[in-house]
Write a structure and sequence with these properties.
heterodimer, A: six-stranded antiparallel beta sheet, two-stranded antiparallel sheet, 4 helices, 8 strands, disordered C terminus, B: alpha+beta, Thiol Ester Dehydrase, Chain A, six-stranded antiparallel beta sheet
Chain lengths: 154, 157
């Protein structure tokens, strides 16, 4: 069993993806962490100066928000399915709703449909007020052939 | 009105290296080619940008950031006078994985510039644009008279 498989298994058993998130270099690069809070997986992108896209108005780069939303979708899939591999992203549409300020950004994801082969995921990112998202995304993933449903989709 | 654009590769690289867009500099983005309405930008391979530590394949998010930045640059290459822009939406199809160790190129074209919205298309690839890693379509809102770090820097060139 590879190190990644092991981290994946541990994340599911303990409902704690922290070590798995840290094993992904790009997650560390954009300052991600993840934890299950009240049964819901929350992914956090801690504010760092290098995440800025417009330094005059102090707005986060759109690419960092897209990355956060995609990552929140992947972590949710990994925790809630039996997937033995990282799911492959087919496509993502990101909608930028508000200027993201130089603050920590949180994200959550939910399945629109979790099928045998394809998972459709909706992800939301916000800063201080959860009811005012700064960006949302819809993403489709190809699941590995050996996956089974674990959680019922909402 | 003075015509500010388009800019040449050296000028765009000066803006990218200046760090007015800190995340573009953190990614190590480099302009390869640009002209009216389009830009080609390279994302160098870096172990920091890997999404799967077992395969060494770049994270989709790094490609997302490259495409967003290149589309935005194509808009600046289309505007008679650069001003602040913000991404409205960005759609990406991931057609194949990037090859570990190789830089990824993105070419973006501003297909239409209206008074308030810019429309762009882009592809990400290694050497050959027909072997696409990803394709994108993005729209941008144009804020007339608002400050943009990139726009302000471009105007100083």
């Amino acid at each position: 069993m590879s190190r990644l498989d092991e981290l994946l298994r541990e994340a599911r058993e303990r409902r704690d993806p922290a070590a798995l998130v840290q094993a992904i270099p790009y997650s560390r690069f954009i300052g991600l962490s993840a934890e299950v809070v009240g049964g819901e997986l929350l992914t956090r992108m801690a504010y760092r100066d290098h995440l800025i896209g417009n330094s005059l108005i102090g707005a986060l780069h759109g690419g960092t928000l897209g990355s956060l939303l995609e990552s929140a979708a992947v972590f949710t899939l990994l925790l809630e399915t039996e997937s033995t591999r990282l799911p492959k992203i087919i496509g993502i549409t990101v909608e930028y709703l508000r200027t993201a300020r130089p603050l920590d950004t949180l994200a959550r994801a939910e399945f629109t449909r979790l099928g045998r082969r394809i998972a459709c995921v909706r992800a939301y990112a916000w800063q201080e007020d959860r009811s005012r998202p700064v960006a949302t995304a819809t993403a489709n993933f190809l699941l590995a052939g050996d996956e089974r449903r674990r959680a019922e989709s909402p | 009105m003075e015509d500010f654009g388009p800019y040449d590769v050296r000028q765009v690289n000066e803006v990218l290296a200046s760090g007015v867009v800190p995340f573009n500099r953190a990614l190590g983005l480099r302009a390869v080619e640009c002209g009216r309405d389009y830009a080609v930008v390279a994302l160098p391979y870096s172990p920091d940008l890997v999404g799967n530590p077992e395969t060494g394949i770049l994270h989709g998010g790094a490609v997302t950031a490259l495409l967003d930045a290149t589309c935005g640059l194509a808009v600046f290459m289309a505007m008679p006078e650069p001003t602040r822009i913000a991404t409205i939406d960005l759609r990406i199809d991931y057609m194949g994985p990037a090859t570990p160790g190789r830089e990824v190129l993105a070419r973006a074209d501003c297909t239409r510039l209206t008074s308030h919205v810019a429309f762009t298309r882009a592809v990400a690839y290694h050497g050959d644009p027909s072997g696409a890693i990803a394709a994108a379509a993005a729209t941008f809102l144009i804020f007339h008279g608002d400050p943009s770090s990139t726009a302000e820097r471009l105007k100083t060139l």
